[in-house]
């Protein structure tokens, strides 16, 4: 049988929000249900109303969008032709985007800023007709204006000038930015559309007016003239991604009973309620899609159950950890954890390169025909790590922003009745056996471990030592990969755990042991509880955990 590779490589979960003006209240209902259920995507990209309403997800304010839209539905300061005549904007820029969020329905800037969720607003550059994808990390007045620009409909809005660009409604250039989100690493996406299945966009009948209003921007006119073609192509892309299981698409069952503009608060509530009902109907599917079940590998004599998760923690803005849990069918199972380090996002780059290299090397054609003896298996693992190290160093040489980056790595390959472990750095491998003993299989490559080995530091004081984060080996950093290995004879019921120091650096082994023994019957619950104890201990670092439970099967 050809080995089948199933990978979870810190799969980033995205949420793609189409615009649609007041149809966006349908989206509001869905995302409010998601927020209340505690569903936290890693990133959101919103277009037009999708950005204007979706920003409340990052600020964790369910109900806010429908609340202020209803409250100001008939307020001429919010949306009126009077505002358009006076300011050039149907939706008043100052009142809608600066007064309401700071005075009448306060936008939670602090939560928006501290939430590690990525948030992007899509605009269209009127001078080029191309999309602008603006990442908004902090809630500033400029952020409010980028969101306003994303939702600024041509004809009824003035061109917005921001950071040297002239921008308008993002839906003109990229109405459903699923392809872009996949391109930047969001592999598992929920897409919320505001038109029903079967909708086909037609050529804009207002193009003669658009040509007059936007006569200074010929490339914008061209983009608008072809918008229906772009939109329908993106719909087809979404359908293809949906059929391949890459995304979960949520649409209204039928055309929503609201226009682009509405001053009827009851009408707004009805559309919002349709979204709420739809969100509740999809809730179980959303949870399953974003949090896939653990992998179970059944072989002739062994069953291997795998689970893994990474968490940014409570202090850091970026997650520099990466991981992979992989079923290789006849070739067993592989787990890998990498904890990156370096300035800016370089640590995340290093750990990602390491995991992607391992993933590529463990492709079926590379494994086919390999003799499964101890020497071959360990050599294969060591060569994979060395190639990862080479790729990290090569990237550092060509990309100055990643100069000096590095990552730890720990791997466990479970094949036949053994666990083969390789590591470099202080990410750890443990085994919990059926006698409820927690055994550390790896040995940290760290300064405090060297002090312990020399008898200069008691093991129980390692966590609190001021130099506990100093490692003596890693991949990258322009150095050679110095790797240690171990072979462990598995017993029925053993649980192998790999983790970054976001867990083992803050939780003593006795706490980890207590947590694992109390939940070992359910691997996903065990993983969740381990994440919880690391967060309870302060969540000072990124936390990554992979687990493999081994059961021997008798014929």
Query: What gross morphology would you assign?
Result: elongated
Sequence stretches where pLDDT stays below 50 over 5 or more residues: 1-10
**Main sheet, how many strands, which sense, barrel?**
8 strands, antiparallel
Strand content: 15-25%
How large is the count of helical segments? 19
**SS elements, strand count:** 22
Distance between the termini: 20 Å
* Radius of gyration, whole Å: 26 Å
Q: Taking all residues together, what is the mean pLDDT?
A: 91
Task: Work out the helicity level.
Answer: 25-40%
Structural class: alpha+beta
How would you describe the overall organization of this protein?
The protein has 555 residues and is α+β, with helices and mostly antiparallel strands. It contains 19 helices and 22 strands. The strands form 3 sheets. Strands 1, 12, 13, 14, 15, 16, 19 and 20 form an 8-stranded antiparallel beta sheet that branches. Strands 2, 3, 4, 5, 6, 7, 8 and 9 form an 8-stranded mixed beta sheet that branches. A 6-stranded antiparallel beta sheet has the order 10-11-22-21-17-18. Helix 13 (346-361) packs antiparallel against helix 15. The longest helix is centred in the middle third of the chain and has 26 residues, at 265-290. The protein is elongated and about 80 Å long. It starts with 5 loop residues before the first strand and ends with a strand. Mean pLDDT is 91; it is low at 1-10.
């Amino acid at each position: 049988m050809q080995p089948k590779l199933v990978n979870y490589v810190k799969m980033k979960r995205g949420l793609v929000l189409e615009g649609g003006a007041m149809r966006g209240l349908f989206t509001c209902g869905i995302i409010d249900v998601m927020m209340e259920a505690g569903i936290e995507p890693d990133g959101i990209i919103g277009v037009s109303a999708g950005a204007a309403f979706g920003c409340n997800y990052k600020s964790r304010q369910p109900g806010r969008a429908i609340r202020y839209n209803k409250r100001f539905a008939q307020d001429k300061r919010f949306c009126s032709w009077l505002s358009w005549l006076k300011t050039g904007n149907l939706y008043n820029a100052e009142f809608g985007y600066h007064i309401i969020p700071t005075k009448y329905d306060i936008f939670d800037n602090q939560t928006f800023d501290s939430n590690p969720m990525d948030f992007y607003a899509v605009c269209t550059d009127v001078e080029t007709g191309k999309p602008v994808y603006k990442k908004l990390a902090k809630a500033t007045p400029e952020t409010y204006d980028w969101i306003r620009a994303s939702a600024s409909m041509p004809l009824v809005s003035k061109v917005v000038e921001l950071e040297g660009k002239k921008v308008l409604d993002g839906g003109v250039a990229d109405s459903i930015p699923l392809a872009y989100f996949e391109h930047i690493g969001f592999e598992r996406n929920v897409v919320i559309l505001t038109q029903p299945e079967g909708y086909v966009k037609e050529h804009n009948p207002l193009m003669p007016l658009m040509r007059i209003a936007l006569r200074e921007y010929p490339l914008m006119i061209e983009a608008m003239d072809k918008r229906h073609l772009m939109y329908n192509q993106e719909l087809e892309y979404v359908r293809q991604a949906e059929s391949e299981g890459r995304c979960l698409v949520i649409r209204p069952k039928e055309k929503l009973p609201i226009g682009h503009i509405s001053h009827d608060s009851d009408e707004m509530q009805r559309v919002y309620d349709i979204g709420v009902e739809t969100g509740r109907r999809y809730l179980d599917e959303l949870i399953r899609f974003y949090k896939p079940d653990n992998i179970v590998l059944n072989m002739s004599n062994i069953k291997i159950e795998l689970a893994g998760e990474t968490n940014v923690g409570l202090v850091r803005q970026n997650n520099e950890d990466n991981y992979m849990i992989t079923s290789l069918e006849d070739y067993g199972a592989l787990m890998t954890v990498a904890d990156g380090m370096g300035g800016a996002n370089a640590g995340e780059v290093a750990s990602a390169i390491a995991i992607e290299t391992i993933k590529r090397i463990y492709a079926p054609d590379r494994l086919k025909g390999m003799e499964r003896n101890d020497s071959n298996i360990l050599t294969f693992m060591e060569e994979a790590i060395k190639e990862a190290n080479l790729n990290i160093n090569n990237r550092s040489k060509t990309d100055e922003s990643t100069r000096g980056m590095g990552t730890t790595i720990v791997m466990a390959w479970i094949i036949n009745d053994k666990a083969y472990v390789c590591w470099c750095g202080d990410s750890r491998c443990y085994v919990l056996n059926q006698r409820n003993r927690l055994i550390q299989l790896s040995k940290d490559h760290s300064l405090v471990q060297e002090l312990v080995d020399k008898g200069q530091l008691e093991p129980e004081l390692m966590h609190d030592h001021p130099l506990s984060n100093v490692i003596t080996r890693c991949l990258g950093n322009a150095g050679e990969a110095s790797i240690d290995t171990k072979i462990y004879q598995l017993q029925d019921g053993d649980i192998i755990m790999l983790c970054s120091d976001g867990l083992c650096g803050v939780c003593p082994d006795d706490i980890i042991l207590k947590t694992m023994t109390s939940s070992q019957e359910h691997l996903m619950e065990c993983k969740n509880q381990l994440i919880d104890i690391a967060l309870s201990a302060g969540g000072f670092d990124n936390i990554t955990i992979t687990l493999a439970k081994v059961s021997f099967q008798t014929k």
